[in-house]
Design brief:
It is built from no helices and eleven strands. With 116 residues, the protein is mainly β.
């Protein structure tokens, strides 16, 4: 079973930046969508950003213009560059990979806390 491992979370002040990393334990064939989700305390998990078919990106309105999703194919890695962070961005962030064969893979999550 392929594992997804997130890293890069932590405590940052408002206005600060973080880069999250999602490393795949091995290459996965036929990836259709890669994405980042987040779940704040007491709230449902929501999608933050996604890459579809390896190229097209999409962002939630709340992070558009501040977050950037990217993928490094040779390194089997996905990133989420987060800038101008606000306390409302505080959440556990999860990476997700879906394939044409029906796999729906999740990482264990990484905590992001934005606080002064």
């Amino acid at each position: 079973q392929v594992q997804l491992v997130e890293s890069g979370g932590g405590l940052v002040q408002p206005g600060g930046s973080l880069r999250l990393t999602c490393a795949l334990s091995r290459p996965i064939l036929a990836i259709t969508t890669m994405g980042w989700y987040r779940q704040a305390p007491g709230k449902q998990r929501e999608i933050v950003a996604s890459i579809v078919s390896g190229a097209a990106t999409d962002y939630s309105d709340s992070v558009k213009g501040r977050f950037t999703i990217s993928r490094d194919r040779p390194k089997n890695t996905m990133y989420l560059q987060m800038t101008n962070l606000t306390p409302e961005d505080t959440a556990v962030y999860y990476c997700n990979v879906r394939t044409a064969t029906g796999q729906d893979l999740w990482g264990q999550g990484t905590q992001v806390t934005v606080s002064s």
